[in-house]
Amino acid sequence: MSASLCRLRAVLTCALIAAVTACASQSETRSMGLEAPVQATDIDLPRFMGTWYVVAHIPYFAERGHVTGRYEYTAREGDRIGVRYLHREGFNEPEQVREARASVKGGSGNRDWTLWFVGVVPAKFHILEVAPDYSWALISYPERDLGWIFSRSPDMDDTLYQQLIRKMRDHGVNARQLVREPQLPAQVGQPGFAEPKTP
């Protein structure tokens, strides 16, 4: 066999090994729920409207110690959105409601919002990723110092939750600071869940 033929066979063998390795790596990544975090498609605003439960968040003063937290989004005229944040400070406490409004930034694929709560400086809101069926959503501030995991259901499977934690990390959010918010009384005191403000 000529030297050039040997070199050609070696090159083809290396290329085949590289291709198989890449495919195996992609398959493993998909099986772990770690697909690339970037979504090219725009957020479908009508599908995003409705109720979202706060499954987890990076605690800050306005939401720390809350239970049963959820956001309700309602489409209004143009790019305007009505926002209601409902929560309790303990499961035996009365429900509280905060009203707000939001606008969607043009050219952002409906991912960048500005929210106005009464007496508060406008806050930024960025939709990182949504499930194909809009059953969960990953949210952050543009600086990635705050983050939320939303769900259409008040409870979430632990396996899915761990996958979403990894996705948040892939998006650059400090996922170690995320804590789960109790949506059901049985969750209080469980590992990873925040303590209610009022027992």
Structure characterization notes:
The chain has 199 residues and is α+β, with helices and mostly antiparallel strands. It has two domains: 1-28; 47-187, Calycin beta-barrel core domain (Lipocalin). Helix content is 23%, strand content 31%. It contains three helices and nine strands; from the N terminus they run ααββββββββαβ. It has an eight-stranded antiparallel barrel. The longest helix has 29 residues, at 3-31. Residues 3-38 have low confidence and may be disordered.
Task: Give keywords.
alpha+beta, globular, 199 residues, 9 strands, Lipocalin, disordered N terminus
Task: Summarize the model shown.
This protein is α+β, with helices and mostly antiparallel strands and 199 residues long. The chain is 23% helix and 31% strand. Strand 4 and strand 5 form a beta hairpin.
Q: How do the helices and strands follow one another from N- to C-terminus?
A: HHEEEEEEEEHE
What is the number of strand segments? 9
Helix content range: 10-25%
| CATH arch. level architecture of the largest domain | Beta Barrel
Give the CATH H-level superfamily of the largest domain: Calycin beta-barrel core domain
Kindly provide the name of the CATH class of the largest domain: Mainly Beta
Number of domains: 2
Q: How far from one another are the termini?
A: 81 Å
CATH topology of the largest domain: Lipocalin
- Broad shape: globular
Residue ranges: pLDDT <50 for 5 or more in a row?
Answer: 3-38
Instruction: State which percent range the strand residues make up.
Output: 25-35%
The description of the largest β-sheet is: 8 strands, antiparallel, barrel
Strand order across the largest sheet: 1-2-3-4-5-6-7-8
Compute the gyration radius: what is it?
22 Å
